[in-house]
Structures are given as structure tokens and as C-alpha cells.
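ok so heres the complex, two chains, lmk if somethin looks off
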Amino acid sequence: MAATAAILTAVAKSAWRNLRATGSFAGNNLTVMIALMMAQEPVDRPSSTAVWYLFIGLMYAVPMGQRLTEQIPALRLKLWPLSPIQRSVVYLAGLVLNPIFPLAVLFTLLSRHPIVGAAMFAFGAIVPLLVVVQPGSLRVLRSVPRFPGRLGGLIQNHVREMLQTLDVPLAALLAMGGIIYRVSGGDPFASVVLGPMIVLVLSTLSQAHLQFDGGAMRTRARLLPITGWELLASRDAAWFAIVLVLGAGYRPAMVCCAAFVTAAIGHQTLLEPPVAQRRWQFSSGRLWPTGVAQFGAVMAAGGVAYNFAWAATAVASGVYGVSLWWYGRRWDTPLR
Amino acid sequence: MIGCSGMTKRFGALPAVDNVSLDLELGSICALLGPNGAGKSTLVRMLAGLSAPDAGEVHMPQRAAIGVVPDDLALLPELTIEEQLGMCGPIYGLDRATTRRRSEDLLRLLSLWDLRRTYARECSYGMRKKTALAMALVHSPPVLLLDEPFEGVDPASSETIGATLRAAADRGITVLITTHILALVTRICDRVLVMRDGRLVSDGPVTDLPRGVEGLYFEQVEPPAKGDLAWLRLPQS
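and the predicted structre for the whole thing:
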């Protein structure tokens, strides 16, 4: 019993200290969009917005599953002399002590479709059992080639990193769904809305302070003879490449305009302390003010580009250029 | 001048580096020794421009003329060992053919050639350390700042790295290393600096140390008393 109590204390301490697990829930710009959709949801009839519950469900389910094994490394747990019952207790306690847990309960209570929320929560509980197969060893990433130019290697690294967040598959799902909907004769206006929405789903990834593996990229960027704008441009090139591929089926001016303003705002976090990202989770950035500003800017840019198309895109690209220059110059200022 | 003067760095009230000045001679290998927490890595990070001193001045050439192995290695996780070097070359102004040729030389020298298609995040610590070292060397910088280049590396590779650094210094490259591998220090270094509690407490040629590097390093270490950790024993039946 003492052994179990000691382990549970350790789990509780690390869960309490490591509230970053909530990041992919609270730090992703998608949260703003889903919260607004939930507020608009009709109560008297089935709603198509229920599908968003699936997304928000994934947003807490996946970190929930991964966190459990990270609070105490699996190898360490294996080394300790625990009985199967003790292991089960540790597993269940780890689930409850996870900082995502209260959020999941809150979501379930607030949802106008409690059954959907409950199902999501149940899914979150069983995910830890399903994550035995880690997708981290996907060899498909090797097929991302080196990009041309002096910064080609950096862009290649950024693309591979971004492809390991759940933002990209979600945006791909949205993009494919929209195309199928249009081909099958759905409301044509839906495809107009979906272009900026794809940018929005990917927008958190454009924040410049997101770092995999403990900020190694930031140290390397300081060591390499590259300027601040080159550093930002290499990251943006990777992000734009993904946005343009996934947004290819939609109005190009709306996608480009929304992408330019999103990236321009994302530069703002370059000098912020790095935010660690975890593979196969939604990216976690700064929701306020950057994420909210990106959300508003995407909506506004999409609307303006709907009416003024390439003129709006030209203005947005100008804003992007100024942002690149301004924040690049701030990176180049000697450290103090 | 390559080095620093009056450099100080504090973390809260704790001085990690306290008024350190050093002048590195061109074409020499200087070893920076000291116990864990002495301030070696902090000093190297400041010399490399990775963190700013609270006081003092850094006298280093521009970034393109420095090769650094930082304490966190700073590898790009989603690139293979080979791709890391392929990324660095063009950024330092090398053409593709030169980058490829130098990469192959370094990877073969450091016994990484057969593992060159392994992702950095899948590498062992020793492989990651050797990759970071190859990245520091690929552009042939006039100054090398290497934070513990031998730690975690197998003995054969350590010998190779040591010999490579000695040859580089003989060709005019200035090298500063931090390390705990004292046998290598004696063999390859020209000068030894010792830090303790953020201060430089000793500075001199390796040959002038009367009791050798080991004597300097261990002079304040008290051997454990016989009764220490008396509980560390076989359980009594």
C-alpha cells in the first residue's frame, strides 16, 4: 500500500506541476472556433456542429492518453515491484489526476449533447490502452525532400515537425470533406467558408515560438549565421507549403489572404519563451492575445478577400512582409 | 583577441560565472575544467552568443567563424544525421559538392557513416554528440567551442576526436573544450583553466602543473570516510 501511495503522490505532483498537458486543449486556436459554435448550437433539433465535439474530444483524449505514460516513464514503472492490482490503481489514479480530467468533465457537463461528451470522455479513458503502437516511427516522413536554397534543410525539418501534429490531419480531413461535399452537390457557399477555416485549423502552428524537443531549434538558430527574417521565413515556408497543399481545392485568394495575416501575427511570439510541442497532439500555442488575434484576422481576411480577391491578398502580403522585417530585426538585436 | 573580459552571469542571486576574463591563444587547445555547476557551460554559452552576460565583454569572431557543440547539442529532431550536415553546409556558404564531401569525411571519421540515415531523435546520446561535433566542424571554423565533446562517446571515437582537434589546432584553429576526461586533457591540450563556483581559480600550461591535471582537479575533494553509507550492504538474513 505504501508503494502505491508513494507512486500516486509522485503522479499527483508531476500532474500538478505539469499543467502544460492542457496546452493542446487551451492553447490551440481551434478552441475559440469550437466554443463559438457550441454557443450557437440549436437545442431543439440535431445539429451538424456535433462533429466538432469529435474534434474537441480528440483534443483532450489524445493528451490524456499520452500524459499518463509520461508522468511516470513506462520503463520506470516496469522496474518497480508492483502487483497487477497496484498497477491498475496507478493507472486509474493517473487518469483522474491528469489535468485534462476536469476539463473533460466540464466539457461533458456543458455540452448540449451530454451523451456525445460522455462518449468522448470514455474514448479518452481507453486511449492509453491503445497508444501501444506509437506512430513516431512513421517512415513516410522521410519522403519529405530537402527544399531548394540555403535554408532548404531548415524548411525540411519544419515540415516534418508540423506533419507530426494533429492539426495537419484535422485540416486534411476538413479539406477532403469539403471537396467531397462540393462534388456531391452541396451548398457552394460551404466551400467558400472552408478555405479560411483550413487556415484557422493550422493557424496555431504558425506561431513562431512552438518548439519540438526542448527548444533545440532555437539554440541552433542562434548558432547558425542566419538573420531573424531568414529564420522566420524558413518556418513560414514550411507552414505555407502545408496550407497551400491543403487549401488547393478552395478559393486561392481567400486562402492566401488568410494565410498571410495569420503568419504575420504568428511572428509576434518569436521572442517569447519557447513552448514545447508534443508529437501526435494538437499544437499548443498562445491563445491570448495571439490566437484570438489570428482567429479574428482569418475571419476578417477571408471576408475581405471574398469581395476583393487579389487586391486584399496583395495588401495581406504587404502586412506579412512588414511583419517579417520587423520581428526579424528584433531577433537580430543582440541578447541582453 | 579571442575570449572575454570581466564576464559575469547570475541566475537569481547565484553567480554562475563571476568576473571571468580569458584570452585564447590562436592555434591552441584550451581545456576548461571544474566540477559540475562550476559555470563552464554557462561560460561557453556566453562565448558562443547563446546567452548574454550580465556584465563584461565577449571578444569573439562573427557567428560564421565559430563552431560550437552546445550543452543541449541543438540538433534538429526531424533530420537524419546526414541531413543535419547537409543543412549546415549551404547556410555557412559551402556548395553542395563540398558539403557532401566534408560530410562523408566527418561521418566516416566519427563512425557515423553506417548510421547516417538515422533521425537525430532516434540516436543514442553518443551518436547525437558526435553529430553535433560534425556540425561544428563541417564549415572549418577558425574557432571551436566544444562543451564536453568526449562525454558519452566511446573511447575509440574519443581518441579520434582528440587527435582531430590536435591536428586542427596545429593548423591554426583555436579550440576551447570543457571536459572531465583528464587523460585526454593531458595528451592533447596546451593550456588548462579550472573553474570553481563561477570563478577562474587556475590558469596555466598543462605541462607546468606540478601534480598533473588530476592533482589540480581533486585537490578539494575529500575522500569518503569509512563509515559513510554504512547501510549500503547485503541484507542480513
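quick notes: Chain B has seven helices and nine strands. thats all i got rn
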